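Researcher: I'd like a structural prediction for the single chain below. Treat it as a standalone chain; there are no partners to consider.
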Amino acid sequence: MREGMEITVTDHGRPIAKIVPIGEESGLEKLIREGLVTLPTGPRQSRYPDPVAANGTVSDLVKDQRR
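Model: Treating it as a single chain, here is the predicted structure.
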């Protein structure tokens, strides 16, 4: 391992992680260096809209939309 070997960690035969020697440039680091990727500068935005306030059950709301 000290010679710079790379190890792939698997879960039931499916690769889930990779252990690489310290100092080796990751794929992301390479893309950043090449200017193909930039890291975000602000806080992460939610992918989901704010919840809608509603009265009644979901079933009632669906029933009302089908009329």
